[in-house]
Structures are given as C-alpha cells and as structure tokens.
Design brief:
Layout (H helix, E strand, L loop, with lengths): L1 H24 L13 E5 L20 E4 L2 E4 H13 L2 E4 L1 E2 L7 H14 L5 E2 L10 E7 L7 H9 L6 E8 L7 H8 L4 E9 L7 H14 L1
Parallel strand pairs: 1-4, 1-7, 7-8, 8-9
Antiparallel strand pairs: 2-3, 5-6
Helix pairs in contact: 2-6
C-alpha cells in the first residue's frame, strides 16, 4: 500500500513539474521568426522621460543606475547591450508629457494613465524603419502592463512581419501578460518572450542579455 502511495505521489509530482515546464515553454510556442538582417533596439525608461537633477541618488532610486558618471535606466541598459551586440541603433520612446522625479509619484501617474487608457504623444524615430526586420524591445513592467507610451509606440508603428524580442524589467512580477498584450496589438508580428530581469539585478545581467541576442543572431 505504501509502495502504491509513493508511486501516486511521485506521478503527481512529475505531472506538476511537466505542467510547469510546459507552461514556461509554451510562451513562444508556434512563433516563427524571420532572419535577422537589420534590427533596432527600442526602449522606454524613466531616464529620458524625467528631468532628473544632476545630483540624483541613483543608488537608492528605483530603476536608476549611474554608469561612469552617466545616469541610465534599467531598460535603457538592456537595450544598449542588445543594440551593441546586434550592431543596431538604440532608440528611446520619449513621452512629450514627462514623468515625476519621485518614483512613487511616477507609479501613481502610471496607474492613472492606465485607468484612463491614455495614449501619450511620443517621440520615437527609427532610422530606415522599412528595412528593419527585428525590434529588441526593452521596457519596464508597470502595473502588470506596458507603460502607456509603449502603447502609443505600437499605435504609431506597424510591425507586421517583423520580429519583436521582448525584454522586461520588473520588481517580482516578471512578464505578467505583457507578451500576450503585444501579440494582440501586433497580431502579424513575430513576438518572442525574451528575458525578464528584476530591476536591481540589471547591472549584473549584461552577459545574459548579450548571450541571448547573440544566440538569436546565430540562429537566423
């Protein structure tokens, strides 16, 4: 009897593990990409969208880093690594309205924008867009969703037939439903769930990002 119980428990555990792996592996199931010939790294970050004072404390400020004296956002760093590895340009999505210096105020404003389904006016110019076949998209997870200026980006650009590799920074919520949302917004694009990185870990993940991009380039 004990032997039978052990077998049942073992089978149940195996099924749970298989299910978990299946759910993780299915996020990109059925996505076929086109060869990567020319790409661009597009990102949305607090840096560039906020008028930070020159003496801002990047150590204690969420999503900010000071690299060789230059203030950079988490999503920006990921995009720049991807761009460098792919020999591409890094392009920022900049909202005309701007965001508060205080992180909590930015969080509150992001929630308000989301509730109103706002589409802030943006600036984002991708050189030779028609020749681009791949977008390395790096964005933060705001309230389990895309920042609203990123919705504006998808309203402005038709990415049909192009690859979109999605990188997300977060504070514990991972991708949430962001990849699904992008697939809904761009149904004719090849949307790939790439890498999610917890915000505070971003400065240590350069090799992870570069290795991932290199792998995709080698495959295409």
């Amino acid at each position: 009897m004990k032997h039978i119980k052990k077998l049942i428990v073992s089978a149940a555990v195996s099924m749970l593990l298989l299910t978990a792996c299946g759910e993780s592996g299915d996020n990109n199931k059925g996505v076929e990409t086109v060869p990567i010939k020319k790409s661009a790294a597009v990102y949305f970050s607090r840096v560039g969208n906020t008028d930070f004072p020159s003496d801002i404390d990047a150590v204690s400020s969420a999503s900010l880093n000071r690299i060789d004296g230059t203030l950079k956002g988490n999503a920006q760093m990921i995009a720049e690594w991807a761009a460098d590895e792919a020999g591409a340009e890094a392009v920022e999505i900049i909202a005309d309205k701007g965001y508060p210096v205080d992180y909590n105020e930015t969080v509150d404003l992001a929630k308000e924008e989301q509730g109103k389904k706002e589409r802030p006016s943006i600036k984002c110019s991708i050189s030779s867009f028609d020749d681009i076949d791949t977008i390395w998209l790096s964005i933060p997870n705001w309230w389990a969703d895309l920042p609203m200026p990123v919705y504006s980006f998808f309203d402005e650009y038709d990415l049909s037939g192009k690859n979109i590799y999605v990188f997300v920074t977060h504070e514990g919520s991972g991708f949430s439903s962001i990849v699904k949302t992008i697939r809904d917004l761009e149904p004719d694009a090849n949307v790939v769930e790439a890498v999610s990185v917890k915000g505070g870990s971003v400065p240590n993940e350069e090799k992870t990002i570069r290795d991932y991009v290199k792998k995709q380039l080698d495959k295409s």
